[in-house]
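Homework help board

Subject: predicted structure for assignment chain

Our instructor gave us this sequence and asked us to write out the predicted structure in token form, then describe one feature. I got the tokens but I'm not sure how to describe them. Can anyone check?
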Amino acid sequence: MNFNLLIENLTNPALLFFVLGIIAVYLKSDLEIPPNSSKFISLYLLFAIGFKGGQELSHEHFDSEIALSMAFGILISLLIPLYTFFLIKRKLGVFNAGAIAAAYGSVSAVTFVTAVSYLESHQLHLHGHMVAIMALMESPAIIMGLLLISIFNKNSSEKIEKGDAIKHSFTNGSVLLILGSLIIGYFANAKQAEGIKPFTNDLFKGFLAIFLLDMGITSGKKLKDFFAFGWFPLVFALIVPIVNGSLVALLSSIITQDITNRFIFAVLAASASYIAVPAAMKISVPKSNPGLYLPMALAITFPINITLGMPIYFSIVQNF
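My token output:
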């Protein structure tokens, strides 16, 4: 791994704002981002990346590589929960295993947005179809997690409401917004897109920094309770994402030779959902413990990806 890349990522202002949020919690500061403002910023980030991705997609020619890339993304989101479920089941039980497996098979939109910013800092640009792939990878993992719980849950009195959760996985606000923005960006011509460019481009990194400050505050609040679950969830949340991301960084070369696409595939495989999956599991698997899978995804895996993970994946796709 290129040590300079690691240093550069560790001194990125967006990441430092995330660290500031954690420090604020431990100093018992009253620093906070109002919930409505936080929600607006998250919606803005999804809108901006979706719209820009749609603009990029409008200049791309749909070919066999894009079709294979979409299939590869869906396959990743099915296989990761399948193997992680069996790693977790004996230690944490069927319900928690299904929820955690779904979270790690699904993707983090904020990690994706941070990865796009990382690419731009290296004068590289995202290809539009990767935005569509990110959105497509949300739902299969949730469905796989629910299916595994259904198969291995031996208690007939604790059946899960699969229908509601599957519906939610397709109509989830983050999925709907990023896909909708992608389609709108695709159909908007260059002149129309230019009119909102200051909003979609110029403000992006500033909003990302404030959002990561909020994520840091949220993570800091959840870390203390998380450690009560022992060493296993911590080790899993630290190691499994790096393994997933590194393997996919290597295997993605079978599908595409483009280093930006391979890097994004690696980040998507390494990330864990802390928005869509917790919402779906709250509806359908109330016996799963959000105090376990939410801090794993947000407070451990998210920061490990944006500090160590991204330089590792970037180094792999550049050198292999």
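Reply (TA_rk): Your tokens look well-formed. For the description, you could write something like this. The chain has 17 helices and no strands. That's the kind of observation they're looking for.
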